[in-house]
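fold-stage: in
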Amino acid sequence: MSPAKYIRWFKEIRNEDVATVGGKNASLGEMYQDLTKVGVKIPNGFAITADAYWHVVRTGGIIDGIKGALAGLDKTSVADLAGRGKKVRDLILGAGIPDDLWKEIRAAYDQLCEEYGPDTDVAVRSSATAEDLPTASFAG
């Protein structure tokens, strides 16, 4: 298989990669790289990049739908934001996962199973690329 286009392993991720993999994943990469070499057992893992998200959006043909759903957003109305957010989520969920991305995810999971055993349990974490920027503030 050719090198992954949408997957980055913890051994490849540093804090400088927040824009590509998000803050949680960047921190996991830092921990994995810095602590495993001093004997701390940090489980291996991988991140699915922001490029993968954009690949889903482009391949699914939903960019105009997302723009339409957000056009005229009333920033003072939580109800308006919630309704539009649901429309965008539905578009993304309906777009599906492109075959090439799914193959990368499956190959990465299979590699974890080779390292840890068949049907390895994994934790899936959301890690937005904007949540840890100096100009952003997110609760929870």
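fold-stage: in (second)
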Amino acid sequence: MKNPLVSVIIPVYNGEQYIDDCIQQMLSQSYENLEIIVVNDGSTDKTGQLAQSYPVKLIEFPQNKGNSIGKNTGLEAATGEYVHFMDVDDAINPDFYQNMVSAIIETGADIACGGIINQSKPHRTMLIPERNVFYSTEDKLRVTNVGRWGYTVRYLFRKEFLKEHNLRFEEGRFIEDLPFSLAAIYFSKSMVMVPGATYTYIRRENSIMTTRTKAHRKKRHRDLRHAKEVRHRFARKHKFKIPGVPTGLFSLFFVKWFT
């Protein structure tokens, strides 16, 4: 299949400011065989109404359920051979899917990984100069730095691979990407790094990660601590070390009490 269907899953809550631009990005891609799935997570603004004006598969929740449930629901509804998770307020370059699909088909990899530009944390920006395929756990963890930066938005996943390993997002958590991405990278037989496919992470002041209410801050801290604990348990269970991340008992004590 030369142009397999790619399901793009966009979970969104009160994203009326961004939904038009996000969908327009999808429709302007050089790769046209896209299934755009918008999961409207109980928005109280015009997100759903605006999304309905485009050729998308719209799933609407009557009330807010959280990003993880939105992503899992989108994954269940996806009919594409490949899956990408997109945040409504971020950006991708026009050839993102063309380059990701070409690389994953030509190499037979389970996962394609593009570059990322992090506007708020430039030290987390990672651009990819050339295509390379990696097979060993050590190499895959090293080149992606997935043990520290979980961003699922960087990856194009073969849907059947996710299904084979029953990979889903833990529901009810703000920090859902790190455990998911770490497990996916570990279980993949091979992963290809893709130049010319760049995701731009844009920090928004009204996002889940920047909300300043006391309750949100406490939950973010709890969920970050939980994600790190899950990361450590997964590494110990499968007997590998995460580059740049200590995984011993002391590190778990540190994560539990000092983060």
